[in-house]
């Protein structure tokens, strides 16, 4: 009896709560935190289907994304009620999201005009090559001085350009001033604040900085960049800070989460920025690495954007208030991390669940000389090589699926080592330990491997949901909400686990050198689509070298006949 009373009195003492919508590439979550202690009280997660209509294409259904948010909110509210926690204590909601993924919808009907084109998607490779070829000296960094980014398939502007050029509904909606463009955060905030009935069309500086249309110095959309990609500025969302009240939730009263109506949405951060905030990396030089679908290493560089000489991106880390200064970061982006686990499960069927991978790899404890470069979407940092493709090399008759599982985990670690090396070179101050978070960090073998391959300790917080925590912190600290203090002395101490390197550095360097060799083998594999003739058949002349070879051979034959003919005269 006493324990029940104690529990209920504890619940009464909870104080203000803050929720976060975490919409990632492979799943959606809704999480509720105690604003005073940063404790996670309840959450729910729903997987998101990805579709691959053609090779290199990756899409998601915007309506399914929205529905998954409603489902997660409903189920979490149910769980809170069961825990006897009052939902009306939720004072604010933050949004964090997969970045760059591109959507266009009709503001009059509220309907999406095409599937969301996911950040990993490669359909714009020919557009990117054409844009780079147009630049002086064929320079992929032509826009970097304004955007901090190379011209790449990764960012939103080229995806939006593709939609405008190839989807009739999008083209027509743009012409008739009905189109709205947004990344996932914009779509969710617009829908959750009323949609076609007065929804707020906005984004935050961190998401805007990943479009290639945003000037990271003026902190706004850039008219010259919009002209460069021929994108009308009227379809773009309004850029706001990462921590302010954007609008109030409007939810159908028949839903369990209907009681969230009227709660302000007051935090918005791209997922990697949110993880930086959630890991409390507020000082210049602090860094974190997130292991999700991809792998993203961000290092806070303070109030000035630092340009990389080693293939890293310059991005906006956060702007925690309308009148606060922006903070910048250097970012190393790896396209395929957790996605390699999904590929081994869904495409090869060598595991049934993600957790099986660790058991399988731990069973052999080595890749036995097998190296796996999962360049499914080309290579991102530090190479920015869209023509690279996945490769598995060093196979022998002895190699089995366990070695392949181990090689897949090592691939995540080697890719992190590459971006960490680039970051250390750019900053001149090597990191002496790596703070980590994200879904894959539950794999203890991966964490140990990472420490071994980096030759520095890896530190993992005991509460892994740092991305959602960052969005909740931004929402709770917003002016007009003010239930979460971001003053350094008020931030709660995070408990964590440390993985120390256990192999000698020579072995680590040897394995890393072999990995580099494998990466070179993966390069320049794929060029843009071959030219087809009218019958959809590929012409041999679509390959320029082959064309020259055949024409040259024909000319040599004609020449030889001509000379032979002259000899007989």
Morphology: globular
Radius of gyration: 26 Å
Strand order within the widest beta sheet: 17-18-16-15-21-22-23
Unreliable stretches covering 5 or more consecutive residues: 1-12, 530-551, 560-564
Biggest pleated-sheet summary = 7 strands, mixed
Number of helices: 17
Explain this structure to me?
This protein is an alpha+beta fold and 569 residues long. A 7-stranded mixed β-sheet has the order 17-18-16-15-21-22-23. It has helices at 2-12, 62-82, 125-134, 144-147, 156-166, 168-175, 184-192, 205-208, 223-228, 271-278, 338-346, 356-364, 401-427, 444-454, 466-476, 505-522, 544-568, and strands spanning 17-23, 27-34, 40-47, 59-60, 90-97, 103-106, 116-117, 179-182, 202-204, 214-215, 220-221, 238-240, 243-248, 264-270, 287-291, 295-302, 313-318, 327-334, 371-373, 391-393, 434-437, 458-461, 496-499. The model is unreliable at 1-12, 530-551 and 560-564 (pLDDT under 50). The relative contact order is 0.12. Helix content is 36%, strand content 20%. The chain has a domain at 296-522: ATPase, nucleotide binding domain (Nucleotidyltransferase, domain 5). It contains 17 helices and 23 strands.
